[in-house]
């Protein structure tokens, strides 16, 4: 089993916190977390980083607005400005570590950041994995009831309301057993910090379809792309990945039954297998007739 360390480095106008492991391995994978309450790199990716750092150089930042990354001086930003700041943050971390190109794995909002990174500077990224990702139009559908509860959490910020919210991210929270209460406690402590409570409402889109990547942009993405989605995901329904799949030319989709929004937790072994097979295959297999 590999391991990782945590660092905090200057990334332009603020300092970024990130996890890093497997330094010296040939390929770099950057993991981007979602926007769930209390989200951060370690709570999303710790087991994944431990596993994949044996073979890959792995980095997982706390994206600006979350976790232990410093806030910019001006936090009165639009959703698109927050997204661009996170894309620039990724590139700054890559430059700091002398990484010319990297693979991206984005979960939920992290998938939206990933897609925007490809539009911002396509040449810096190799292969792409989108897991439970937003970005796809869903026939003019509005936010799900779960998203509404999440974005309006501070209208009733009780620990039980938070526990319910966290359980809804999964098809069956019993898969995390004793870890569940620790996840709830750790994330609740983060989200109840006064500075987080003040910032939280600013981090979500205010207009319909701000998350949606235009099909005209998706069809110009050249990177090999693997979409992974829990079939029972109630935060970003799997129709979002179907919509993205429709337009990205070099893409494939894996749908997993009895799985919600956190594939990397609920289907850990399968997630590791899929990412390793997809990113680790550097040459095409020669088929014999």
Automatic annotation (TrEMBL):
Stored SUPFAM superfamilies: alpha/beta-Hydrolases
Keyword list, A-Z: Hydrolase
GO cellular component: membrane
PANTHER family associated with the record: AB HYDROLASE SUPERFAMILY PROTEIN YCLE, MONOACYLGLYCEROL LIPASE
Ranges where the AB hydrolase-1 domain occurs: 29-272
GO molecular function: hydrolase activity
Taxonomy, superkingdom: Bacteria
Protein name, UniProt field: Alpha/beta fold hydrolase
